[in-house]
Amino acid sequence: MKKGILINIAKALLLARWRQTLVAAIGVTFSITMFITLLGFMNGLNDLLDGLILNRTPHIKLYNDIKPNANQPIKMANDYKGKHHFIQSIKSDANKQAIYNSQAIMNSLQKDARVIGFTQKLTAQVFFINGTTDITGVLNGVNASEESKLFHFDDYIVSGNASDLDRETNTIILGKSLAEKLLVNIGDVIQLSTANGDRFQLKVVGYFQSGLKEIDIIQSFASIHTVQKIMNKPNNFVTEIDIKLKDINLSIPTAKEYAQLYQTDAEDIQTANSQFETGSAVRSIISYAVGITLLVVAGFGIYNILNMMIFEKMDSIAILKATGFSGKDVKNIFMYIALSIGFFGGLAGLLFGFILSSIIDQIPFVTAALPTVKTYPINYSIIFYIIGISFSLITTYFAGWFPARKASKIDPVVIIRGK
Amino acid sequence: MSQKILEAKNITKYFEDPVKVQVLNDINFSINKGEFVSLTGKSGCGKSTLLYVLSTMDTDYEGSLYIDQDVMPKNDEGYLAKIRNEKIGFVFQFHYLLNEFDVLNNVMLPGLKLNKYSKEKVEHRAYEKLKLLGIEHLALKKANQLSGGEKQRVAIARALINDPHIIMGDEPTGNLDKKNSDLVFDIFKKLAHEYNQTLLIVTHDPGFAERTDRIIKMEDGKIIV
User: Fold this and answer.
1) Which of A57-71, A166-180, A271-285, B79-93 is the most confident on average?
2) Which of A201, A226, A305, B91 has its CA 20 to 30 A from that of A288?
3) Residues of B with CB below 8 A from A315's CB?
4) What pLDDT shows up at residue A359?
């Protein structure tokens, strides 16, 4: 009841100066609108760029690096035990590209609760024969359906179908730029030769476009069995196992554990792509900074308008105090005014922010580099809306606090006698 | 029978700015229930200053003030606001209505603040007070659509809404023409004699003062009669 009357007075004062109130509210609305739009857009972009790399990158990659054997023969010689070994012209051991005992590793991964899934991969260096010239390329043997499920492989197939690799033998998907270079169309047969000089004929069933040209110009994909056949290797020969974890943040310790357990090299996504997280964080900070700056400016607007209102309403404040409203009541009245400007302005800001984001979401954004993206990306996370309305309430609270305190300190005697 | 509504004991007050000047000098007097008192004196004698001390709005004084036989604290702003709301009604020289509200709501405001009756009851009481002053037909008009005399009567109605112990007026007729002055005076008289309402009115109009039941005359910060 008592609160009700203070709110009524606040409402009457607000409506009496509705134009100023509207200007103040529009200030808040504008800043919240921009805040929501900016954050939605920036984070949409972040998600897009992260997705570009992170979605396709395994959380842990098991492989055997080409590097010198850590156990050189001299180590086994008892005479030189504990001594420092100088070895010159040491060579990498290239025969161990294949992951040893891959079947057992896969069986064990299947039972691991932390793992969503994994795919096996086989990479071979090949030459595409184009008339008299050979073009170097990389042929990846993949399990297309698993690869699509875990790493969005099919998102990047711009023509044709990823599952055709599994369905037909001796088929290949070429990188778009590579296909352009080779002047082949879907359905054509191309010839390639392995490093050992064996020649094979494969039918082109699709194009692949990652958005990164240096990848698109060398990569090609075939089923893992096709590649094993081309390389003349048994069907347990894989050079890479890509693992997707349930929790990406566990990739560093899990990678270490697997490296120990399976005696392979293990690369985790966080070490491999740390620069992306840094970029995302910086972009977020920038959008928050801009949003908060806008709100502070709106806060000064509210501060000004309330100050003016108090100056104009001195008489009313004096009479309220004379008839028994305490300083606290007067302060509350002006706080209600400030907070309702913040609340309704903020609410409108959320709405307009959502509308503006939706409009941006409709603007075409076609680029060859991002085949899956047709319009500008927007992130509609509810978090931004919660932060937006909280910020608008907090800023208007502080903007209202000082004028309200001033109003509560007004001495009615001075006003009444001053007439 | 004679119940003391208001009592001033040794009230002394100084203005500090720009030099220390004594405006009230050892004021002692009391007002009983139902008295219609006028406080007069020449301009600058301190009568308005005294009224604001008595009204509890000005707490910068020495001595003690009793309202309804309770001593008024000097530093409890919230408590004093409550006293003003409940026990004192004000009528000023300038009307001081809230232009944002209509007449009825202006009258109701202190009643709603008191929060003793329901909103419907307060509204009913406000209508009664307006009727008593003969202005119930103005109830739904905005405060700034009224004439000076009408505004002053609305202010009186507002002062009455909580059945205060005492009504204080600071030159309530000072801004009105003869006809409206008489009207306001008759209302005060009616309140005092028919409803046993205590009134303390500051005025420099000798005609007004003469017709009240008791005159307190001030000169140079002292009560002389």
Assistant:
1) A166-180
2) A305
3) 96
4) 92
Spell out which residues of chain B touch residue A411, defining contact as CB-CB under 8 Å: 57
> What is the extent of the structural domain holding B131?
4-223
Average pLDDT over residues B44-73: 80
Between CA A167 and CA A218 the distance in angstroms is 24
Cα A181 to Cα A191: distance, rounded to the nearest angstrom: 14
Which residues from B are below 8 Å from A322, CB to CB? 55, 57, 84, 90, 92, 96
Q: What CATH number does the domain containing B155 carry?
A: 3.40.50.300
pLDDT tens-digit readout, A95-151: 667 888 888 888 888 888 888 888 988 888 899 988 888 889 999 998 888 888 888
Q: What residue spans of A185-326 are helical by DSSP H?
A: 213-216, 224-230, 251-262, 269-272, 274-312, 314-322
The residue of B43, B51, B52 whose CB has the most chain A CBs within 10 angstroms, and thus the best one to mutate to test that interface, is: B52
* A324 → closest Cβ in B52, B99, B110: B110
Q: Mind listing the pLDDT tens digit for each residue in B141-161?
A: 887 787 777 888 888 888 888
**A199 CB contacts (<8 Å, ≥6 apart)?**
A129, A191, A192, A193
**Inter-chain contact B109–A1, Cβ cutoff 8 Å?**
no
Residue B15, chain A, CB below 8 Å: the answer is no
What is the token pair recorded at B116? 């003793």
Residue appearing with tokens 């009258």: B107
Is the CB of residue A417 less than 8 Å away from at least one CB of chain B? yes
Given CB atoms, is B85 within the 8 Å cutoff of chain A? yes
